[in-house]
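Form 7-S
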Amino acid sequence: MYNELPASELRGVEEALQHDPELATACADLLLAQRTLDGLRREPRQATTDAILQYSRTFMAAS
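Output:
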């Protein structure tokens, strides 16, 4: 998934994927999920940040 295997082990994994359709399907699903998750936004929308800050101001004003 993340190219972490040493070259000596990579060939064995590749062979297993070629000979085991269930393993190959699971690997393909994981790769798709990885690509999907990598493309997701990693920060809140500005409207969300503004709403949190506005809400926190209600506590500061009450003090």
